[in-house]
Structures are given as structure tokens and as C-alpha cells.
Amino acid sequence: MLVILHPGTDPELSARVLTAIEQMGGRPVPMTGYNRSAILVEGDRSRVDPRRLRALPGVEDIISDAKPFRRAARESVSEPTVLKLPGGLTIGGEEIVIMAGPCAVESAGQLLETARAVRAAGATVLRAGAFKPRTSPYSFQGLGVEGLKLLAQVRSETGLLIVTEAMDVETLEPVAEVADIIQIGSRNMVNYSLLKAVGRLNKPVLLKRGMAATITELLLSAEYILSEGNPNVILCERGVRGFDSSTRNVFDLSAIPLVHQLSHLPIIADPSHGTGDRHLVPAMARAAIAAGADGLLIEVHHQPDLALSDGGQSLFPEQFSTLMRDVHAIASLLGRRVAAAELVP
Amino acid sequence: MLVILHPGTDPELSARVLTAIEQMGGRPVPMTGYNRSAILVEGDRSRVDPRRLRALPGVEDIISDAKPFRRAARESVSEPTVLKLPGGLTIGGEEIVIMAGPCAVESAGQLLETARAVRAAGATVLRAGAFKPRTSPYSFQGLGVEGLKLLAQVRSETGLLIVTEAMDVETLEPVAEVADIIQIGSRNMVNYSLLKAVGRLNKPVLLKRGMAATITELLLSAEYILSEGNPNVILCERGVRGFDSSTRNVFDLSAIPLVHQLSHLPIIADPSHGTGDRHLVPAMARAAIAAGADGLLIEVHHQPDLALSDGGQSLFPEQFSTLMRDVHAIASLLGRRVAAAELVP
Amino acid sequence: MLVILHPGTDPELSARVLTAIEQMGGRPVPMTGYNRSAILVEGDRSRVDPRRLRALPGVEDIISDAKPFRRAARESVSEPTVLKLPGGLTIGGEEIVIMAGPCAVESAGQLLETARAVRAAGATVLRAGAFKPRTSPYSFQGLGVEGLKLLAQVRSETGLLIVTEAMDVETLEPVAEVADIIQIGSRNMVNYSLLKAVGRLNKPVLLKRGMAATITELLLSAEYILSEGNPNVILCERGVRGFDSSTRNVFDLSAIPLVHQLSHLPIIADPSHGTGDRHLVPAMARAAIAAGADGLLIEVHHQPDLALSDGGQSLFPEQFSTLMRDVHAIASLLGRRVAAAELVP
Amino acid sequence: MLVILHPGTDPELSARVLTAIEQMGGRPVPMTGYNRSAILVEGDRSRVDPRRLRALPGVEDIISDAKPFRRAARESVSEPTVLKLPGGLTIGGEEIVIMAGPCAVESAGQLLETARAVRAAGATVLRAGAFKPRTSPYSFQGLGVEGLKLLAQVRSETGLLIVTEAMDVETLEPVAEVADIIQIGSRNMVNYSLLKAVGRLNKPVLLKRGMAATITELLLSAEYILSEGNPNVILCERGVRGFDSSTRNVFDLSAIPLVHQLSHLPIIADPSHGTGDRHLVPAMARAAIAAGADGLLIEVHHQPDLALSDGGQSLFPEQFSTLMRDVHAIASLLGRRVAAAELVP
Asked: How many domains does chain A have?
């Protein structure tokens, strides 16, 4: 951290800044130029609050360390993290993992039929929500525990891994029993109590970017999980809020190469929420793979017209099959391969 | 709800839309123009999903009812809600309620000294967080239960009411014991499990707008609380995320008259988070009152230089006193008055 | 400017940065801390490009001078600029200037009737566009030169000053002949050719903030005008683009105190475009004055229902009269006064 | 256009809306449901202003036609437009056109060397600005007419086509003499005077999306050019303004498939401005091709360290060569091919 002082700052004010840094446990190192001075903050910076320093008289600006996250930072681990998933799958290395399925678990028939369709097309993980966070209290809120049971059944029938969302600490335990990957949704990216709770488990966590979250904030939310002891974090770009209502969100694909530059964690892309429109999903799924995504999370429904939520952004099974062929081709062109369904027992 | 069909839509496709509406429990009423038709959806629309309809072939657009919130809507209650707070205070009527204090409870001395200062200047509610949601896991996370005890002490010593944040369902009970008003922070505006939990209490709830929340979404989050049975909701504008880093947030004061137009619920303003800069707080606090805010939430610290969080946006006690004079004057000019500290026992 | 180097940067790379700074005409001053070094850039920094430096290996970050604008900066002039307008009016000092009128000049009758109404209510400047930038080529584009003639007539009949928009260099001359204040609209805030052209005139310029412009960028656009020799710049906050379609723009009132902190130039507020909704205009006009605005720009139409553009955000004359009473009261409370119509000949 | 009335709107108010529509030249068709009515607007809607209608009492909402643009709309032309460029190149069909080169023309040597490098790697169009719109008046503003001469020379020496920016009507003629494709930059997307002027030429125009422009607004700006008679418009996604400063802009690649859905015009992508960071450009260039872009606009500099502008986002020639191999492969995978340099004389 570097504290930039105004040109010609009074020595008394400088001294006050030095004192404040020491009070917060840092070691201040003055640096002097012709017109302007600065103070480098060394030592234990964990308690040094940049906003507090910024408010001191004489301080013009604070240069925070670029990366307030530590365990999530590229520098902390020499190689990209390759997470092991059940069934011999990996994510973050050569393999690209395809997670597909309906927005919500609606019924045994719907879930099984869609699961079979996505498995046939090459997906290895089934996505479907049992607990659904909905903007309106009057919308369908998911089948809850009943939905979890259906997920468990379908897993045993199809061999697909399960990714499903945990909405709160209270229902985390039953979700964690069924899920191979626990999803933390966008709305909960800054629910730190929930992040700490999944951080104490030893299960892969799929952490979705919040609607208005910077990449630094996404990585700091990952840091909450990592710092509790769970290293199995997969990030997910799913679009951020923008000003143009012609798409549901702004699908910020630059996040993919940016996260790969800043962090060792794997990152996948969700073009269904990123665009909110079935017609745009295949193009953006291809783009995500070309940008280097470690996987895809895609909504597919055997009858999107009848879906209880997000029908408009769900692919028909045939569209998903066609897309998968492109995904295979682009992946192999980039020296990667789609994780094979054959690996699933 | 109105379903707009493409010009020249095939009758077969129209029929399919009619069927879909009926399947979801609505009563479709076709409306025909020269070039274009539409379908009005009457009857029980609670299960009619606009996104599902939008995805049907032939459908050009869906006009949702302007107000998906019901209990929060102006139409549901003829008069603005005037909430009764302990000590004879009210909010939402003629009185303007001033809530002030430090960002976080740091120590008995800090809390008491600041509390006395804000009370002397005319505040009636003390704000201070015992549980602090922080972007980084390495930042000061609040004193927790210990902080709650200090709040209870200061209340009994000063008579000030207490507003303090509940971060999760697990710690809601101890927070609710101490708080006169339970704060739901921006990050938790879409934590529906927490909203439902405070909805089952019978205490005033201060619901802060999320960083990327529309006003409709803010009112839908209020609806989660109201629909569980707790009618005591106070909304709070505290800035939304924007593209200009010269202020911490974009303080969207138009939300004040807009909420008053759409809803009967009271709304207050938090210029401290709205701007993130002590130098801008007084001007924006005055502006909030002039825009019709039902109260203010302001960070004040007896020694902002030493604050453990948000020091840069905290007012010095003298600044707060000066501001309060302007607030009184603008309020009376608009036919309102600042809720008096004398009312507090 | 300060160039922050990565910890442990190779001396060879540091040397390359020093060379690059010298090549661009700056004088580099190395500053050394324990773990990390930095280079302060002194001397002539006009050609030192921060983006070029940032791209050099070893460079972690660049701290640009907070204020790339110079003539617009508070530091360059000790006191707030008080511009003299014709008729003895001033803006930027004690007086608050009210500019009101229809969005567009539509006809002699409409213009005169509205002009009389706003004058009666206390406005001293008439706003109305002869040239109208419209998002669609098929919308009403203004009366053009014919509209300018009507403005000149109404000025001589009412004594009101005229503020009207110049859309391009080609029509700047006729606009400048009629206008007492030349408006540069939001869309043209970054039309540098036009800014330079008005910078060569000696007339007051009302520069509106662009839809996605930061305050720094607004002040840099002012700098284009100032640096050509025209010191008569009035800034205008009129809302920026946001994600919530419930208002036309996000009316960013914090810009008012922020500009007053960073610059000596006056700034006014346009609540009509800021909100896009007549029902929100009075509250936000009051708020703007309370925040310290040096004036208001408000759309008023004698028959808003029939307006050819922006009818929905135009006040009825009676609403405007009522609002003016509040504006007077808040102004005097803050030690200011509304510039009086009596001053106009 | 459809005017939605409030439930239970008084017949007198309805009648007033009908009259207003007729006054503006539209033909109103009332549509009645059980609880709610609407008015369909037929006939000549060119003068019917939705904002004016929205402001009338009794009106709840206005459903504008989804596509206010006409000539740019997919419906107006049955097939995608395939523009012919000089040298036998086409854009918008099977061929993908690569435009590359430095941000600005700096010198004969720089331009020629970079031009040769990008040609060798497979680009067919050279990009470089002679007139540079810069945020600060103190930044390098381009070589102007001198730069145009250098562009003409390099074209005759290399056979590359030239795309270069026109900043204003005054300098449009000399730019149009040299340019094979006239670029309208982001800042000028809403400079309607300039759009109309290029609309009267018969040269291809590259229209870049504005920083805060919706896709509808981008297409309406294209409409300004088309409606003046110039059908040769190429759109360009180059990122929009967002809240995360970790990239220069939010590169909104969904715009590619969305424009292809809404319009017949070709659209290319500019990952250099989209990301602002050389390290992210190759991944996002690949992604753009995978999303269906009809071309790329990429900054390449033979010595990015020494570039006078945008050095940090310019590729080294070797990086560009490597990228071109991936571009070829992804293009062919999608049934397209990179327009060949051999076609250039």
C-alpha cells in the first residue's frame, strides 16, 4: 500500500499519517520526491484501512495493493488449480466440464427426461435447483427437500453428477448431502455467513458472480471460502447488470481470461443467465469456450414452453446436442477436450 | 398482463399462447387491432410466468403489470404508513427521524462518546454495527455479540433507540433482542431466507437497497417481509453501483419521490454510503430532506481518523451538529419536523 | 504521476521505465521502499502517457495526478468563478439562476405563452431548442433557423435571456447570434471539434454532462473550451445512464458538491432530464438547490399534453410557480437568492 | 404502438388519449378486456410521440414498436447485407475481414512497419487514426492531414485497404478521399450531423457503438446513415462503460448474435478497446469470432512500448500472427473463412 501525499504537505500532517499507520499495525516507510512525497506501508497490513487513511488531512490518494485476495491469487499457487470431481472428472485442467439441465426441479418426469437428454448430448453434470431464490415472493420457490430427493434419484439412475444451489445455512446440510457441487447463486455471492459455512465443508463449490460484483470482489468472496479451509472453488461468470434491457444481463466474457490471469481457480460460464435468451445462448457458449472457459453451465429443458422458471432462456435438447458438437470442436482446437460422459460410473 | 403478438401471427400460434396462459391458471382475453393483436391476461395471474410466455413463438413482448409487489403498493393502502417506534417516535408521517452513529461498534468508550454527541445534536436513533459484512475476510468483522451488549448498555444510558444490522438467520435472535430497528444491509436485500425470518418478527425493519437493485426489486424485497406478516418496513436509499469511481456509489435520490409515488412505505436516505466522502455528506443530507426523505442514516464518529471502518465517510460531531440545523430548517419549510430527542425517555 | 513497480522488479526493467519517461519528456525520480519501489514523474508531464507506461514490464500500476484538468481545477483559481450574464445577472456566486421553458421551439404562440408563464413565475432565462438531437431520424428534429428567429422575437418581447443548443459547427454561428448562453448537449459533451469551436467564442457555454461521463471527463470537456480561451463555462448535471428503467436517467446530484470541491466553475441541475418524469421534478429540483446547485434548467410547457417532445417530463406552468416558491425559500435558507427577473430589462 | 390504460380509466380520459393520437396523425384502435383497456395506434406513427402519450392521465404504459429502426431491421431486407469493399473483399457474408494496425498514425516508419507486419499475418485492412478524439485537450491529437497522406502512401505500397476515423464534418472530405472505410468513433455515434454527412457519401462506414448506447440506439444511429442514402454500414462492438475498472470497458459480445438477429447489417468486434489490455485481447478476439463476428478491429503496433496512444492494449506483431492462426481455425469450423490478403492488388 502506498499513501500519496498532496504536494507541499505540512510535516506535521505527514507525521500524523505515519502515526495512524503505526496505530493500525503497519510499518510506514516515507518516500520523497521533488514536489511530492508518499508513504509506503510495509509490515502487517491486515488491519491498515485505506479508507481511514484516505480521510486524513494531507492525503491525496491511496494505492491499495492490487490484489487484496491472497489464497485466490495466482501468486499463491504456481499452477492452475485442477479440482477433482467425483467419477474421475477434473475441472481447471485440460478437461472442459459441461453442466446442463433445467432451471428448477419440477417433477420426477421432467428431471429424468431432461437429464437423459443432456447426458446423451455429452453433459456430465446435471444442474437443477431444488431451492430457488426468486425476486418475487409470489413466484414458484422450488420443491425444496422434495426436489433434493428427486435429484438423488436421477443421479443414481443416470450417473450424472449434481450441481444444485444452497440458499442458506439452514438448508445447507441437506443440499450438501445430495450435491456433488454446491452452487452459491449470484444473490448470495456476498452472503458471507453462507460462504463461511461452505468454506467449512470439503465439497466443491460453484461460486457465481454477483450482479454488480467486480472481479476483485468475486475473488474476495472466493477468499472467504478458501480461508475457512475449503480449496475446492469453481468461479462462474453469469453476466452483470447493465443499462440495455435487450439482454437480461451483460455477459462479461472478459472475466474468463482476466480470472485466469489473476487467479489459479477455474472459471466456467453461464450463457443462459448471461443473455436470458435462448436464441443467443449457442453463440455465447461457443464464445465462452473460445475465451478459455473451464466449463459451461447451461439451462436445458425437455419442454421449455412449460418450464416453471426461465423457460425463455432454456435450450431445447436438440439445440443443446448441436451446440455440443461445436463445443467439442473449439475445445480441441485450443488443445482441450470435453470431459467425457464415459467417465461417469 | 398483456401479451403482444407479432403482426400477422398465425392463429395456430395464438391458440398455443392462449393454452399456455390457461395451463398456468390465467384467463386469456384476446384483443384485436388492424395489424396486430394482443392477449390480456385476467384471472389468477400468480402462476403466470411472463418469461415463459415471452419464449413462445409469435409473442413479441409481454407487458407485465407495472407493480408485481402488492402489499407494498400505494394502491393497497390509502394513506402513507406511519410506523410507530418505541419512545413515541413515528416515521413516515410528519416527523423526520435522524439515525446517526459510527459504522461499527468498536469499544464502550467510542460508542458512548459518539452516542452522546449525536444525541446532543438531535438524533433519536443510534446506528452502529455489531456484525459487519466486509468485502474482505481479512477486514475487521465487528465485535459480534460483545457489540450487542455495548449497544444495550448505551441505550439504557442515553435513551437512544438502536438500529443495528442482522447478517444472518443464526444471529438474528440476539440482534432482535437489542435492536429497536433491525437493519438488513444492501448485500442482504436479496437474501430471501433472512427477509422471511425478519418477516416473522414484529419489529421495525430497515431494508437497504441493494447495489444493483431496481426500485421494483427493492419493493419486492419489502414484499417478502410484508407477506410474512411484519408490516413494519422502512426502506433506505444508500446509493447504487455506478461507473464513476469519484464517489463510492451513485446516490440515487430520485428513489425518494419515486418510492413515495409507488408505495405507502416510508423511505430514508443514507448519504454516508451514498457518497462515501465526508465532504459530500452534508450537501446530500440536505438534498435528501428536500427530496422528501422520511429520515436520515448518517455515520458520525467521535474520532473519524481512528475509525476501524468507513472513517472517511464519517462526520465529525461538530459537522453533524451544523448539519442538523439545516435539516431542521428545510424540514419545517416543507411542513415537517425533526422527531424530537425529548420524546426519548 | 507515480509509477508503482512490482515487488522485486529487475533493475533492468526499472531502467527501461526511466528511459521511457525521459523519452516522453518527463523527469523520473526513483523512490525506494523495503519491498517495493516507485518512480515519481516530475518535469513536463504533458506528453507522458500513463497507458503506455502501464504496459511496460515491471509496472504494477500508475497513479495519475488526481486532476488531469488544469484551468478547470479549483487550484487554478482561488475563488469560485462568478460569470456575468447579460442583464446584470450572475451565476456561480450568491445568485441562483432559473432557466425554464419548453424542450423545443414549436411555434410562436407556444414559445411566447410558455415564456410569459415562466417569466411570471420568476425565471430569468428561457430554454428551448431550435436544433434538436433526436435518437431516431424519424422524430421531430426542431424548427432550425426558423426556431432561432422565434427565440430572438420572444427575447425582445419578454426580456428573458435565451439558452439554446448548438448541435454542430456548421450551425454554431446562427445559434451564437441568438443565444445568450450556448448549450452543448449531453450527446456532444465529447464532440471535441464543437467544444473547440465554442471555446473560440466569447459567450457563456452551458456544458451538459454526457450519459456515461465521469466528473473528471466532464471537467476535461470544460477544459477543451477553457483552453481555447473562453472562460465562461457553466456545467450541468442532467443524469447518467443507469440500470433501472423506472427513471429516464440516474440523476446524480452528488455531482453538485463534488464539482464545487474539484472546480471553480458553476454547476446547475436539470431535473427534467435527470428523472424524465414530471411527477418527480419538483422534489428533485428542491433537492438540487439544497445540494448547492447554482441554477436549475427545467422543462415547462404551456400544454405539456401537446408537446412535440419530452411532454411527459415538462411541468405545467402552475406546478412551476409552486416549485419556485420552495426554491426561493431553500435558497435563502442557504444564504443565497434567486436571480431576480426585475434585473432583466 | 399500444397504449395501456389504467384499470377503470374514466371514458373521458380515454377519449382524450384518442384525440391526442389523432392530433399527432395516428389512427387509434380501442381494444377492450374485462378489467383493462388498451389503444392500438395504427396509421402514420412517425409523429406519434410515446413520451407525450405516457404523460396523459389514465395512461399506464406505452408499448413502443420493438424496432423503431426500419431500414436497419432484419425485416426490411430478406438476407444479411454483404458489403463489397475495394479489392474484391466482402463483409457480412462468408468472409471474415481482419482490420489491424496502430491506434494512431505516428510516423511514416511506424505506419509502414506495422502495416507490413499485419499484412504478413493476414490482415487486409489497415486501421490507424490521423484525427484522434482524446479525453484531454493536452493529449496527442493525431497528425491530422499529414497523417492522411501517410495512410495514402502506405496503401499504395502495401495494397492494404484503409479504415480511419472522421471526427467532424469539416475534415470529412479529406478523410473520405483516403479512407476505404470511414470510421465513426464511439464518441460520435450520436453526432447526428456527422452521421447525416457520411450518409450522403457512397463509402462504407464503420459505426462504433457508443459507451452507453443500447443496441436499439446503435441501430438508430445506423438508420441516420441509411436514411440519407448510404447503405454501406458496418457496425462495431467495442465495449460499453461498466462499473469494474479492471477492464477498460465491458466487452459486450452478446451484441454480435443480437445484432444478427435484429438487423441485416454486418457487425465486427474490437477487442482492443473492449478490454483495454493486451493480455486479454487474443482470448476475446477468438471469442468474438466464435460468437459470429463478421470481422475484427485490432490494435497492433510494431513497438507498443513506444506508442503515442493505447500502447497498453496494442498487440506485438508476433502475438497478432499467433492469434490469426486461431482465427482461421475457428472461422473454418463455423463454415467461414478469413478474407484473403491475396485478393488485395
From this structure: 2
